[in-house]
Design goal:
Layout lengths: L14 H14 L5 E5 L1 H13 L4 E6 L12 H15 L1 H4 L2 H16 L2 H8 L1 H10 L1 H14 L7 H14 L2 H12 L9 H4 L3 E9 L9 H4 L3 E8 L7 H4 L1 H15 L2 H8 L10 H7 L1 H20 L2
Parallel strand pairs: 1-2, 2-3, 3-4
Helix pairs in contact: 1-2, 3-17, 6-7, 6-10, 7-8, 7-10, 8-9, 16-17
């Protein structure tokens, strides 16, 4: 339901359904093996593709990585949640210097710039119909994001072209509703996050642009993806493919032709298991500092229990 993409005709179309649609499309086009690249909602859709279809999707390249734990009881989730909470309480202990600035930027976005997301997630039709009826309102709604989430001035022609696509295809309302169907704040709406927050075993590259609104620290991403490449870009923001297409293209090519080998990725995917997760040893290997904190707490708790016996 964005731009040239037809709006869903029934309720209940969110991240999971979009992932199924894209995989089905690739299969019908004759591509049993493929790679995916995306940012924003697309980054979550492509991660879901990697979680659900790891034998077909052989590689992911994302420019807005989603790093979070689900409610499954595992060492990975325990370490990740501990690291997240610890990063808030004592960032200098668990985060590197560059990760702290990224962490601060993400929290600043959540505090001051994410109100639109709550509106989209709870009352999408009220907002959507208003924007669909007012060119000035639609322009203001989109222009504000172009100003806040980029590190350069986009031309009037570029911005108006983007706004016009929403206006003439009448998809601003359906694009708002995608938040409602995917974030599931309202009771009764399908929760996609239990699945999307699983570990993704598909080889993944993350490109972090300076003005990206959500910047997952590298240490978090390692516990959420089979991370093979993590590059911090020189310039650019949330709309990476729009702002810096050459930088993004070069990073994608580096991943699939230098960091990894596409032919080998295809062969590896044939035997890949769905939701393979991380073993205890893999967790310690990928995040020794975070795992050590959890192990220390567990050892202290065991000592306190034993001392009372």
């Amino acid at each position: 339901g964005y731009g040239w993409s037809e709006a869903p005709r029934e309720a209940g179309y969110g991240v999971s359904e979009a992932a199924d649609t894209f995989n089905q499309l690739m299969m019908e086009l004759g591509y049993d093996s493929y790679v995916a690249q995306a940012g924003d909602w697309g980054a979550m859709v492509t991660k879901m593709i990697g979680v659900r279809y790891p034998n077909n999707c052989v590689g992911l390249h994302l420019n807005m990585p989603h790093s979070a734990a689900n409610m499954e009881v595992s060492l990975r989730n325990t370490v990740l949640l501990s690291r997240m909470l610890g990063s808030i309480i004592a960032p200098t202990l668990l985060l590197e210097a560059d990760e702290i600035s990224n962490f601060d930027r993400t929290f600043n976005y959540l505090r001051t710039d994410s109100g639109y997301m709550l509106t989209h997630s709870t009352k999408p039709n009220t907002l959507g119909w208003g924007l669909a009826d007012s060119p000035a309102g639609l322009c203001a709604w989109i222009l504000e994001k172009c100003h806040s989430w980029t590190d350069q001035d986009l031309s009037f022609d570029e911005v108006l072209t983007n706004i016009s696509i929403y206006w003439f295809t009448k998809t601003i309302s359906s694009s708002c509703r995608f938040y409602y169907e995917s974030i599931a704040i309202v009771p009764g709406v399908k929760d996609h996050y239990e699945e999307i927050n699983r570990y993704c075993n598909v080889p993944t590259a993350l490109a972090l642009f300076p003005k990206e609104i959500i910047a997952s620290p590298r240490s978090w991403a390692k516990l959420c993806y089979n991370l093979k490449q993590y590059n911090v870009m020189e310039k650019g923001g949330h709309f990476a493919a729009w702002e810096e297409p050459e930088l993004l293209n070069e990073d994608v090519r580096t991943f699939y032709f230098k960091t990894t080998n596409f032919t080998e990725l295809v062969e590896e995917a044939k035997t890949r298991e769905v939701d393979q997760g991380l073993s205890m040893f893999s967790v310690f290997e990928k995040d020794p500092k975070g795992a050590s904190v959890v192990a220390g707490i567990a050892a202290w708790m065991a000592y306190k229990v034993a001392s009372k016996l």
